[in-house]
Amino acid sequence: MARLTVHALEKRFANTAAVDRVSLDVEDGELICLLGPSGSGKSTMLRMIGGFERPTGGQILIDGQDVTHLPPERRPTGMVFQSHALWTHMTVAGNIAFGLKLRHLPRAEVRDKVEWALSLVGLAGYGSRMPYQLSGGQQQRVALARSLVLEPKILLLDEPFASLDQHLRERLREEVRDIQQRLGITTLFVTHGQDEALAISDRIAVLKDGRIEQLDTPDRVYRRPQTQFTAGFIGTMGFIEAEVRDGRFQHPDLCLPLTVSDGPATLALRPEDIVLAPATGPEGPVVVRAVDFGSHHQVELQLSEGERIKAMTEASSRWQRGDRVRLSIRNHALFRDGKVVLSSADTPDVELKKDLIHG
Q: Where is the ABC transporter domain (predicted)?
């Protein structure tokens, strides 16, 4: 196990900062997901930690040792890329053994370590096969085994399952999480998949424009987003813009009491925090679409001023296009200038959180 420290890490291409003075501490045995859209700097940051990209500035420390300027082969890191990068002319065992042979280990020790790695990733008995004889998921397991067999202190995973179908991707990420916890290896996992980050990480670093927007546990990133970008990027979130006046969010379809100063603000609502009831009159949000997901229905609503938000309802609900509804809100967050100013998830007043209704 090891501790990774990144201090004011920076990477510039001409006048563009791909990574903009990012600092991050990863504890022993922790798995942190770097999550963000394309161009947010997450892969560039991972490549600098692995030694495949030279930083413009900052430091990278592993167990207190400065590795900022060391080449990849001299760093105690193992990296798994999105492309499997297997040598097609070598067997599976040959691919895994390659790095061990460069260390001039005895042949018997190399064989034992390869067998251990194959067993670890669920490919015992596959050593004599060629890469082209494996499925995409099996090839990625070989790539993972090739990194783990070298016993790195830090495991770096750069969107390793992006090219796989969803079902296989979900299964492999669970297997990787099990292996990571079994070995207790400190891990950085780059992904643009929200579900992936929420499912396997101890903490999530949400990146935007080369900077960390929020670094927190999955439940806090989802339920207590600190910026409007994070709120919109993680999961499904509906945004409603209106004025706060006299302590209330003034919107034709939703009038909430809020303990913030007057002025423009953006209300953020998760679908599962919106409760629908039949409207008592001809006014109110209208159902645009209702989609049956089996376990629940997702109902898309159009509000009076044109905004669209989504609500999650029970599988037994029967909302149809054109229905008028009344909204009740369980939880919400309020943003100004992209920063959170109020979150009912942090409000101790249970009655306030229980049912905030526009009558």
A: 4-234
CA 266 to centroid of chain Cα atoms: 24
Is residue 222 within 8 Å of residue 234, measured between CB atoms? yes
Q: Write down the pTM of the prediction.
A: 0.90
Degrees to nearest 5, angle at CA 135 with 129 and 138? 70
CATH architecture of 236-357: Beta Barrel (2.40)
Q: Residue 39, class by beta-carbon neighbours within 10 Å (0-12 exposed, 13-18 middle, 19+ buried)?
A: middle
Tell me the fold of 4-223.
Rossmann fold (3.40.50)
Identify the CA nearest to 283 among candidates 325, 248, 240, 327: 325
* Sequence-ordered list of residues with C-beta below 8 angstroms from that of 312, at least 6 positions apart, any chain: 271, 272, 274, 296, 297, 298, 299
Q: How many CB atoms lie within 10 A of CB 24?
A: 19
DSSP, collapsed to helix, strand or coil, labels residue 187 as: strand
- How many other CB atoms are there within 10 angstroms of residue 2's CB atom? 20
Q: How far apart are CA 355 and CA 275, in angstroms?
A: 9
Q: Which residues of 100-118 are buried (b: 16+ CB within 10 A; e: fewer)?
A: beeeeeeeeebeebbbebb
Tell me the average confidence (pLDDT) per consecutive run of 10 residues in the chain, 359 residues long.
93 92 96 95 96 96 96 92 84 92 90 94 93 91 92 93 83 90 95 90 96 96 96 94 92 88 95 93 90 94 93 92 92 95 67 39
- Gyration radius (Cα) of the chain, Å: 25
Q: Token pair 């260390």 is at which residue?
A: 103
Find out whether 296 and 227 touch, Cβ atoms under 8 Å.
Answer: no
CA-to-CA distance for 121 and 93, rounded, in angstroms? 13
Pairing of strands 186-191, 274-278: unpaired
CA distance 100 to 89: 18
CB 222 within 8 A of CB 233: no
Amino acid residing at 71: P
Domains of the chain by residue range: 4-223, 236-357
What's the token pair of residue 146?
Answer: 């090739």
Q: What is the DSSP letter of 129?
A: S
pLDDT for the residue 268? 96
DSSP assignments along 148-173, one per residue: HTT--SEEEEESTTTTS-HHHHHHHH
